[in-house]
Input
Amino acid sequence: MVQRPNILLLMADQFRGDCLGAAGHPDVKTPYLDMLCERGTRFERAYSATPTCIPARAALLTGMDQRHHGRVGYQDGVAWSYPHTLAGTLAQAGYQTHCAGKMHVHPLRSRQGFDGVDLHDGYLHHYRNASHPYYEHQLQADDYFYEMQGKGHMDLADDGIDCNGWAARPWPYEEQLHPTWWVGDRVMDFLRCRDRDVPFFLMASFVRPHPPFDAPQAFFDMYRGKNLRMPPVGDWAAPVTTRIPNADQGILDDELQRQALIGYYACITQVDHQIGRIYEQLGVEGLLNNTLILFVSDHGELLGDHHLMRKSLPYEGSARIPFVLSGPGIPRGGVSSRVVTLADIMPTLLDYAGVAIPDSVDGTSVLGLLTDSDTPWRDMLHGEHTYHGRGMPESVQFMVSSTDKYIWYSGDGREEYFDLVNDPQECCNLIADSKKAARIAQMRARLVQQLTGREEGYVQDGQLVTGRSPRTVLAEAGILG
Output
């Protein structure tokens, strides 16, 4: 009998696609992730098609695109009920499946096919409303919070910084009490207690570098005194008009901007060190020769780019994500410029495990790209997100290829076009460039094709239409109950 491979899915929350030393970032330090890149293949054009936590995780766990998993914006409290999930499909094929860390599903303890879950979702505002029936329940249902209460550490808000904001300060407790360390501990427990007669699928799902930017002091110290690169500001960027720490606008104070960079990078390096810890244990257990490792994120963090913070927008800092495959049979030191996305993860891992891919899956296995440059592949990816900006909800739609990006805002019809080869930081909006007119028209037409027939009515008579009421969840997907 052929021994089936183990699968380790390493996931970070709000981790930018450019924040790897192996990707050429001048400041952030990621030695263990860089090692995975050197021992595997990095996809440099990986995107989250719906760049916030819930819809992005729906794509990852189901292999569906947003039209079929139904989540085109951020909305808590909608039950997760899908015909197939990644963990469930692997469990049916004989894998022991386990998640340690963030799930961000509803209800909170829905396992989505995992045999077991050690849960830490972070500070979920939806369940912290005192009028909500789940109020207080998150502290009980979340394993990390429950354990920390028993140790006298009550909540993430104790240090006074917002869990969706840019304020930063070092963790005030022992490093071993930090949620990033806790996920590492739970992974170690699984590797110790697993059923050694069957293969495993293990998801290590870190909440960081999602705010709060609160890594332990040692990681802050790595960036103190460094001459850090400041965020790019495009010719199209609006000025900052607020000092609110959790706004989606940038930071007026240059020193606070610098502190946010330090805090974010510190959280990344802490996650990286826990990944190194996990990798070392795989070696001790003799598992590296039969374990596929995938590192990915649900979306990025704008981090001040173009006077913007957080996520949900289609710009590189928000929508572009890391995607690194390492393990037996994966070419070493490879870099692919093909456009891949979170919906490709389920078919890729099932393909590697030799498990049949359900018909409900929209994504495509990337394994063929590793060995055959002529493998047919998408030339563009459609992405979107319902965004509450400028005082009104609107849908932000985009088409992205390995070389360029087209963006359309449904509220007022604003369009943007970026040449990602010559302008990777999207500083120059070329929408009015006559030399790009044919390409822009082509990408616009592809967006029209993607949106034709959608319930919001974004397309009429073959043209994009503004002012339509956006959705966060599509009724046609059938998940609203």
In short: Residues 6-371 form a domain with the Alkaline Phosphatase, subunit A fold (CATH 3.40.720.10). Residues 254-284 form the longest helix (31 residues). The chain has two domains: 6-371, 381-477. The first strand starts at residue 6 and ends at 13.
